[in-house]
Amino acid sequence: MVVQRNLFVSGAEGYHTYRIPALAVTGQGTVLAFCEGRKHSPADTGDIDILLKRSFDGGRTWEATQVVVAGGGHTAGNPAPVVDRDTGTILLLFCRNNIDGPEKVIIEGKAPRTVWLTKSDDDGATWSEPVEITSSVKRPEWTWYATGPCHGVQLASGRLVVPCDHVVLTEKASTEYPFYSHVIYSDDHGLTWHIGGILGPCVNESVVVELKESLYINCRGSHVETYRRGYAHSYDGGLTFTELAWDEALVEPRCQGSAIAAEVSGKSYVLFSNPASTERKQMTIKLSDDECRTWHHGVLLNEGPSAYSDLCVLSDGTVLSLYERGEATPYEYLTLATMNLADLVKGCA
User: Fold this and answer.
1) Is the pTM of this model over 0.90?
2) What are the φ and ψ backbone dihedral angles of 106, each rounded to 5 degrees?
3) CA-CA distances (angstroms) from residue 250 to 222, 272, 280, 293?
4) Digit-coded pLDDT (tens) for 111-122
């Protein structure tokens, strides 16, 4: 059974629109639900804060919304959390740009887009002063840049990996949009960050999952008519990726998606969520039991307008999906769907 409730409602609590969900689970089991709070319009650029709600009971009840990063009249967005299981620290990577420097202007190299990091050592109750890490994770020829937007992962080795994307500046950047996916990583618990493998062009927002033999990256298509998700594998912890391929089973409307690894009765699975359509509708969770080679249809969360999403799995096997949904547009609610992983697996048997 799937239980759904609206966690953020656009127009409420002083924000015009809530978008760009991201989920994380702390070492103490606290669920963290991040998003962008867009104060005056649904636009990607504007006066935008990064917000957080916390749940201590698996998503049944939630604390009041807190502002993790204030835009200060400009844009703070693309929340990408990752939890370090060794230290318990929650690291939140995000981006900033000026209110008068929207995406098109940034892509053309005429306005800045910077990358930042804030941390919490008390289960998300308080957050450190953000530190800029742009020079470590963004090359000079890159203009547009986005962290996530969804969770990062910690590999078995301890390496922290966060999916990102960027645009390479060219003379035709404003019309060709040469988007690429890439990852950044840290081997010292988030103290320093480095650029890892790069994939593209024609892909951008991405998510990573550690499989048994590889690190799997799954990417949104960018300005191509495939209407399919791109993917590749890394066999060196995210330093390099295999050649980009397109998954015919993962239909998409050129929209962000999420994926996460899970386990039931000793068997490994990967869950994937996105609007499984050539339009932004039909939010669906699919499931793979063979290292992302094939996919089973798991559950349709919303038949109507739907867009961005993120997934997490609790220690008791509860699956949470925080996704954008609405009646007329996909941006009216951030809805939390709760379900049992064993039931999802049973339905695909």
Assistant:
1) yes
2) -65, -45
3) 15, 9, 14, 11
4) 999 999 999 999
The residue-averaged pLDDT of 12-28 equals 97
Dihedral of CA atoms 326, 42, 165, 235 in degrees, nearest 10, equals -20
Predicted pLDDT at 176: 63
DSSP state of 99: T
Q: What confidence tier does 264 reach under pLDDT thresholds 50, 70, 90? A: confident
Q: Are strands 17-25 and 48-55 parallel, antiparallel or unpaired?
A: unpaired
Per the model's pLDDT, the better-predicted residue between 223 and 79 turns out to be 79
Beta carbons within 8 Å of 291's beta carbon, 6+ residues apart: 211, 212, 213, 214, 216, 268, 270
Q: What pLDDT score does 345 carry?
A: 87
Residue 136 has pLDDT above 60, yes or no: yes
State the Cα–Cα distance between residues 165 and 148, nearest whole angstrom. Answer: 8
Instruction: List helix spans (H) across the chain.
Output: 103-107, 134-137, 173-176, 341-347
- Length, in residues, of the chain: 349
DSSP string, 263-312: EETTEEEEEEEEE-SSSSEEEEEEEESSTTSS-EEEEEEEEEEEEEEEEE
Alpha carbons 144 and 167: distance in angstroms, whole number: 5
How does DSSP assign 110-130, residue by residue?
SS-EEEEEEEESSTTSS-PPP
Instruction: Pick the closest to residue 197 from 182, 187, 207, 209 (CA basis).
Output: 182
Structurally, how many domains does the chain consist of? 1
SS3 136: helix
Contacts of 1 (CB under 8 A, 6+ apart): 339, 340, 343
Q: What are phi and psi of 126, to 5 degrees?
A: -135, 160
Q: Is 99 a residue whose pLDDT tops 60?
A: yes
Joined together, the tokens standing for residue 81 give: 């959390």
Taking the C-alpha atoms of residue 81 and residue 162, their distance in angstroms, rounded to an integer, is 8
Write the CATH number for 34. 2.120.10.10
